[in-house]
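Re: that chain you flagged

S.,

Sorry for the slow reply, it's been a week of failed gels. I finally had a moment to sit down with the sequence you sent. For the record, here it is as I used it:
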Amino acid sequence: MAYDLITMGRIGVDLYPLQTGVPLARVSSFGKFLGGSATNVAVAAARLGRHTAVITRTGDDPFGGYLHEALRGFGVDDRWVTPVPGLPTPVTFCEVFPPDDFPLYFYRQPKAPDLEIDVHELDLDAIRRARVFWVTGTGLSEEPSRSATLAALARRDGAGTTVFDLDWRPMFWSDPDQARPFYAEALRHTTVAVGNLDEVEVATGVREPHAAARALLDAGVELAVVKQGPKGVLAVHRDGGSVEVPPLPVTVLNGLGAGDAFGGSLCHGLLAGWDLETVMRHANAAGAIVASRLECSSAMPTPAEVAAALDAGAVL
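Prediction finished late last night. Pasting the structure tokens below so you have them in one place:
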């Protein structure tokens, strides 16, 4: 059976402080959670009832074992999550200063196992059959992950919906100019591009949301989704359709997982065949719910929780 969604990219262990508003040096207790943007998107879609899997790699260590256990617990197929001997499973710390300051500290040295995905280990037939396939900009930052990501995109060749999460993380690149040619190549094989203002600027050289959306369409995508933070989300389709949806009011606790919840809901809505405005409103609500919670993966909302937030017009 074809998967509703296969994602490919980062995985790791999130160690989040259980005290908010406290510098990391003074935090005394942490919670351990499954993390990594592509993995969180698969979890978010699974929580909404979709059949999902993730392609990634871990260390051959206890944290790697924990990630397998967590994926299975969330209902995400882990058959393509394999260990890399000699490399540790990545760990990410954050600081939580609501409402809008959440510094991240990535421990991915000497190299993250998820950048060791090799084209020869990909099930390209399964990737092509998936109704939605999701890749990230981080996957383009180093070899062999870069070649594997581009090969997977080429194998899609217009099959189903292919989403490129622009996912710009400056610490993984020397400069934006280094990334832009690889982003351009990925966009040629993509039907949907998703990114915030910083990310669309890296991909297109343009920051103004409407101009950036047009540039993404010109680069080859059918749907450009530009996240504008407190101004909401802009979605522009090649057929001329365009919506701009305001954010759902929420008291933010930790905004780090909101984009991944948005992504999982975006895939869910596209699979359901909803109109563009309904897709964006549902995705905004899913993101807002996670922003009101501390963790990311285990905070992903259920259909009932999203429906309740939409009915209330806010996250209560």
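What I noticed first: Residues 248 and 314 are 5 Å apart (CA to CA).

Talk soon,
D.
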